[in-house]
Amino acid sequence: MTIREEMEEREAQLLSPFASLSRNSQGRDVEEEPCDIRTIYQRDRDRILHCKAFRRLKHKTQVFLAPHGDHYRTRLTHTLEVAQIARTISKALFLNEDLTEAIALGHDLGHTPFGHAGEEALDQVCPEGFAHYRQSVRIVEVLERDGAGLNLSKEVRDGILNHRTSGHPSTLEGQVVRLSDKIAYINHDIDDAIRAGILREDMLPTEYTTVLGNTVRTRLDTLIHCVIEESRGKPSICMDSQIEAAMTGLRNYMFEHVYTNSAAKREDGKAQQMLQMLYRYYEKKIEEMPPEFLNLIWIRRESQSRVVCDYVSGMTDNFAIRTFEQLYVPQRW
């Protein structure tokens, strides 16, 4: 018996009857020889962790564009916080931590530079539209490894696609990530907004903080405990209705006072115009894109507009600015 098979046997003995067992996975689109050490979900996690799109997340905006300070979240640190919250919940519920972690690490791979502002900008100019959750799946299925994709399991791709608010993950592990994403960003965005001077803790509505707590730490503790306590022994991931309503209310408050705040978003218009100009530039001069993107058009016969969107959306904030300056800003003699 291999180490992987021993691990699969332990999963069957120890995990919840509602957990996704590695040996019961629906598998990959392209069949592969199993690893003798790692389960299928461990391999998926490792592939995501080592891919180029994951590394680029460290230079992509979470909420605050190019902030002056080392402690603001980036898309990468957000991803890591989601993964840790999701693992904590999954471990307590005896779910499959490896599947949970793989989904969490991959859920935002498709985000554009400059956060949701960049997503909106590309959605406006790309004829096929743009949504980061669909792009995350496209990255792992098509774009990574020069067009070969990562060949991830169906369960991981399902969790990545359905992590959005309106999504319906088919596994409990995917449901855990979907909730953990909200728990993470609501609270760490409050922390960053306070750091930026846009919010003070005492500005948060007391109708929500009375239920959830008056610090980031206590709110995280309340929400994580709630998910665990309400979901134990159940075939779905649940929350207490009062606590869920308070979380939703706080999320709505953040949309109104931070995510659309003029101070936090004052550079968004510039960033959007820049990305749209980059998109239109490469749409006319596709030959200036890297060879792996040209191969998608010339060999795989993919839509030119889709591939241009792939290229621009994959840029980091810094690379997008640097490329724009090279193309449109006159250089000193």
| CATH architecture classification name of the largest domain | Orthogonal Bundle
* Overall tally of domains: 2
CATH top level of the largest domain is Mainly Alpha
- Which stretches of 5+ consecutive residues score pLDDT under 50? none
Rg (CA only):
21 Å
Query: What is the global morphology?
Result: flat
The CATH topology of the largest domain, please? Hypothetical protein af1432
Question: What proportion of the residues form beta strands (DSSP E)?
Answer: under 5%
Helix share, percent: 55-70%
The CATH superfamily title of the largest domain: Hypothetical protein af1432
* DSSP E strands, number: 0
**Tell me about the biggest sheet?**
none
Number of H- or I-type helical stretches: 16
Distance between the termini: 69 Å
User: Average pLDDT, to the nearest integer?
Assistant: 95
H/E series: HHHHHHHHHHHHHHHH
Q: Structural class of the secondary structure composition?
A: mainly alpha
Describe this structure in words.
By secondary structure, the protein is an all-alpha fold. It has two domains: 3-259, Hypothetical protein af1432 (Orthogonal Bundle); 268-328, no CATH class. Helix content is 61%, strand content 0%. It is built from 16 helices and no strands. It has helices at residues 3-14, 40-49, 52-56, 75-92, 97-106, 115-125, 132-147, 154-161, 172-195, 206-212, 216-231, 241-259, 268-284, 291-298, 304-313, 317-328. The longest helix is centred in the middle third of the chain and has 24 residues, at 172-195. The relative contact order is 0.12. The mean pLDDT is 95.
